[in-house]
Amino acid sequence: MRDLSALLLRLVTGSLLAGHGAQKLFGWFGGPGMEGTSGFMESLGLRPGRTWAAIGGASEFGGGTLTALGFLNPLGPLGIIAAMSMASVTAHRGKPIWVTEGGAELPVTNMAVAAALMLNGPGRYSLDRALGLRLPRWLAPLALLVIAATVYRYGMQAEPPQQEESREGLAGKEE
């Protein structure tokens, strides 16, 4: 049953995240595509927006696809964790946790599922198992450190343009 439950989690979470990334990258499933996503990233203070749109879309699409397939574990779950961590500290910053309030409830849930899959492994019904692949165990902790540093450096310190404009306006009034 454990392998079957891993398969279910991988397929559902991975497919949904891959679809979400496809919305960003290709405009599929009614998504904004690179142009719309680039503007959104800029509005979050992530510049250049096109670069961050590509990174976010690739993390979701690639991480979701690898996770769904159970291929090259832990790279897929790490991609999901990276994208959802950045979303939590930028798009959902300063809001109550609940999705109904615009909060990070869904990204946090996706990170928890990805972390569980990363720790548990992809299970028997995966490409890794079928191909006899196993990446080094040290890869996950190292990648998590890189993700944490990146989220701190670029996500936690990103300032949306509206905030910068209001600061400039305040500075002008003080003079």
List the helices and strands and how they pair.
Layout: H1 2-26, H2 33-43, H3 49-69, H4 75-89, H5 105-120, H6 127-131, H7 139-156, H8 161-174
Helix pairs in contact: 1-2, 1-3, 1-5, 2-3, 3-4, 4-5, 4-7
Protein name: DoxX
Membrane topology: Multi-pass membrane protein
Subcellular location: Cell membrane
Which range does the strand content fall in? under 5%
Seen as an oligomer or otherwise, the chain set is single chain
- Uncertain parts: 163-175
Domain module tally: 1
List keywords for this structure.
0% strand; mainly alpha; 8 helices; 175 residues; single chain
Structure description:
- This protein is mostly helical.
- The chain has one domain (2-160).
- It has eight helices and no strands.
- Helix 1 packs antiparallel against helix 3 and helix 1 packs across helix 5 (105-120).
- The radius of gyration is 18 Å and the shape is globular.
- Mean pLDDT is 92; it is low at 163-175.
